[in-house]
Amino acid sequence: MAFIVFEGLDGSGKTSLIQKLKDYVTHLGIVCTVTREPGGTSLGDEIRKILLRTNAEVPVPECEILLYEAIRAQHVATVLKPALKKQSWVLCDRFTGSTIAFQAAGRSLSLTEAVWLNEFATRGLKPDLNILLDLSPELSLGRQKIRIQTTGLAADRFELEKQEFHEKVRQGYLHQASLDPKNWFVLDASKSLEELFTLVLQELKNRKWLN
């Protein structure tokens, strides 16, 4: 059993890497649950729409963080803890590290309060490993533009933020990783998916989670 969270700026390749790892461990006979934040539950998905929409009232930072923590509390109680109790691997796209990066660092909210809210919403649940796909804001925005052009999907509220905001978020991630290197594995997200996947597998084998 392993609870692995993938963090990083939009366009860093989290979704593709999660799917590739899920396919790999499932082939080995390991039960695997893939989920995400914000979202992960029907209630969470509804709140996610409020957080990402661009055509309505914008939540102030204090409201924003509370909405994220509401999603997380439901997610932990109804998806994450039940899956882990059944000895399933859990691969999650974003978790508590995103709150520290986006709301504490990006929105300049109190780090102490953000940590407390994370603890309250999770009831102490922590990832076994955070995998940070580190990407420059310039490359992140470039990849987002390509996605918008190819899919026709409009940019969400966070994707429309200025580059300065995304740089604060990036530094918020890197600061967390520097403080806790045992539980954070930082990858250069400008590398190819195959290169990243190879590095992730090696890390999991080093931790004796895979043979």
Average of the residue pLDDT scores: 96
The fold-level CATH name is: Rossmann fold
Number of helices: 8
In the predicted model, the low-confidence regions spanning at least 5 consecutive residues are none
In helices, the fraction of residues equals: 55-70%
Please identify, by name, the CATH architecture. 3-Layer(aba) Sandwich
Alpha-carbon Rg, integer: 16 Å
Shape descriptor reads globular
Structural class category: alpha/beta
Q: How many beta strands in the DSSP annotation?
A: 5
What spatial order of strands do you see in the largest sheet?
2-3-1-4-5
Tally of domains: 1
**Oligomer designation:** single chain
Largest sheet: 5 strands, parallel
CATH homologous superfamily descriptor: P-loop containing nucleotide triphosphate hydrolases
Main CATH class: Alpha Beta
Q: List the secondary-structure elements in sequence, H or E.
A: EHEHHEHHEHHEH
How far is the N terminus from the C terminus? Answer: 13 Å
The fraction of residues in strands falls at 5-15%
Helix/strand layout:
Blueprint: E1 3-8, H1 14-27, E2 32-36, H2 42-52, H3 61-85, E3 89-93, H4 96-106, H5 111-122, E4 129-134, H6 137-151, H7 163-179, E5 184-188, H8 193-206
